[in-house]
Design brief:
Layout lengths: L10 E9 L3 E10 L10 H6 L3 E5 L2 E6 L2 E9 L2 E3 L2 E3 L5 E2 L4 E2 H7 L5 H9 L6 E2 L7 H6 L21 E7 L10 E7 L5 E6 L5 H16 L5 E4 L8 H8 L3 E4 L9 H21 L6 H12 L12 H6 L14 E5 L12 E5 L2 E2 L6 E2 L1
Parallel strand pairs: 2-8, 9-10, 11-14, 14-15
Antiparallel strand pairs: 1-2, 1-7, 3-4, 4-5, 5-6, 11-12, 12-13, 16-17, 18-19
């Protein structure tokens, strides 16, 4: 104790609390010490259990992901909060998320990819490892069994080689795009995509991509592998020569020679179809689904990386999955006080479309 005294622990159990935010908080291995006048909660134990503590301006907030579990105020040298013992079925902060939910949050990731991440215990609150048959995947990912080919070796550094390809989509996006172009780093297998209205926009987005990745890594792009499409001729060739980028072209009518980009485009299209089907959204939303699909591919394990994920290989930093939500699910956005009347709702319903890149938050 603080006064160098000792008190006897007479019991230990898990306690279920209903917090002042209406959530259920489970405190594990709580010690019962009759001589103590206050109930103390260890912030270190909460941190170990996956919660996040925020302290500042005399206030305390406990969160798990985007859910605010409890709040409190500073009194003297302690932070105080109110809670009551509960076993009811209220909003639960400690959730058991099924593997099916994580399958949907990760944009219908393959069974093998889910097993890899589950074994690494990267899914907060994940329950079970056996994925049931997904009707959306069954209907939209079925294809002929391919002949096995010896996998090519990966380049040793990022930006040593970039694979690129253009994919045509019959349906236009909300912004009237009919194509998208992919850029894939050979070493990390990280992928970037850009929606295009016409093929002649490829050079413009490549210039943008080129500047961004070199600025981010401090490295120079050395080589780009393309097919024989007209969008990669003329001005594109001139730009590569000007910047010392080697241009590798595949043999005419042999798209398998640009196999990394071709296979990635197929993966992206399959997962776009699965996500739109599950969300019951029209095909014109494929641009939003594509953006989210790529974000999820970059944090999903890949066979060429022996189970590692592109974003970690690209940055050297671990990735988190706590912020993931199911594409197309219902969401609510807060309406600022200066944008509503007194009797107006404080939040309005939206559809979850993905994750912010330049800004922190969700796209709704």
């Amino acid at each position: 104790m603080g006064n160098d005294g000792a008190s006897k622990i007479v019991g230990m159990c898990d306690i279920h609390l209903e917090t002042n935010t209406g959530c259920k908080l489970v405190l594990k291995d709580v010690r019962h010490v009759p001589n103590m006048r206050l109930n103390l909660i260890s912030t270190g134990k909460l941190d170990d259990d996956g919660y996040t503590n925020y302290f500042g301006e005399g206030k305390w907030k406990l969160s798990r992901g985007s859910l605010v579990v409890a709040k409190g105020k500073k009194e003297s040298t302690h932070y105080m909060t109110n809670a009551k013992h509960s076993k009811g079925g209220i909003n639960v902060a400690e959730k058991d998320y099924s593997i099916e939910l994580w399958h949907k949050r990760l944009g219908h990731l393959s069974k093998k990819g889910l097993q890899i991440l589950s074994k690494k215990q990267l899914f907060p609150g994940a329950k079970g490892t056996l994925l049931k048959t997904c009707v959306h995947c069954l209907a939209r990912k079925t294809h002929r069994v391919a002949f096995h080919r010896f996998p090519p070796s990966r380049r040793s550094k990022v930006l040593d080689l970039i694979h690129t390809d253009v994919c045509f989509m019959r349906d236009k996006t909300l912004g009237c795009a009919s194509y998208y172009v992919t850029f894939i780093d050979d070493h990390s297998r990280k992928v970037w995509t850009y929606a295009l209205k016409t093929k002649d926009q490829v050079l413009d987005v490549f210039k943008q991509f080129h500047a961004e990745v070199e600025r981010e890594t401090g490295l120079k792009l050395k080589c780009v592998r393309v097919d024989n499409g007209g969008e990669y001729r003329g001005p594109f060739e001139s730009y590569c020569r000007l910047h010392g980028i080697k241009l590798q072209k595949s043999v005419p009518k042999a798209p398998q020679k640009n196999g990394v980009a071709e296979r990635m485009n197929r993966t992206i299209c399959e997962r776009i179809k699965c996500m739109l089907s599950h969300a019951k959204l029209p095909k014109s939303f494929w641009g939003e689904a594509m953006r989210t699909t790529v974000d999820l591919i970059n944090i999903s394990p890949l066979v060429p990386l022996e189970g590692d994920v592109p974003q970690r290989v690209w940055t050297g930093k671990e990735v988190s999955y706590e912020h993931l939500r199911v594409f197309g699910c219902k969401a609510y956005v807060h309406v600022p006080k200066d944008e509503r009347a007194k009797l107006d709702d404080k939040a309005k319903p939206c559809i979850f479309m993905g994750y912010g890149r330049e800004e922190f938050g969700y796209r709704l």
